[in-house]
Design goal:
Endonuclease, Chain A, about 15% strand
Length: about 120
């Protein structure tokens, strides 16, 4: 697990390129806030998390581990539980939280609908 990148991952780069091509500026990377968001728009109070399909148990494409099941189930379930807690706490503090599944970044329409429209139009 130590080899798994936490910053500048391929999904992050895809999203940043989409933001850049849309002319969106004013976002911060890896802002030091609860939950370690990938991208933050501080002025608009919008946080964007890119969740890996395996690590955060995507309902569409998660594949259960075949080895060391108890370890992985516990690890992944704790990630999901932590995501829920982080979402509630950030919303309580007035932040809008956008979570994008890793597989969604392969579709430009989803990037536009989930992020760009919210940021541009509020």
């Amino acid at each position: 697990m130590s080899q798994i990148k936490g910053k500048d991952t391929q999904p992050e780069i895809i999203l940043r390129k989409a933001l850049s091509s849309a002319g969106l500026k004013g976002y911060r990377l890896h802002y030091k806030l609860l939950g370690k968001p990938d991208i933050v728009f501080p002025k608009k109070k919008i946080m964007v998390f890119i969740d890996g399909c395996f690590w955060h148990k995507c309902p569409k494409c998660f594949i259960k581990p075949k080895t060391n099941k108890s370890f992985w189930n516990k690890k992944i379930d704790s990630n999901v539980k932590r995501d829920d807690i982080v979402n509630l706490e950030l919303k309580r503090k007035g932040w809008e939280v956008i979570r994008i599944w890793e597989h969604e970044l392969r579709k430009e329409k989803i990037i536009k609908r989930k992020i760009l429209d919210k940021i541009i139009h509020g």
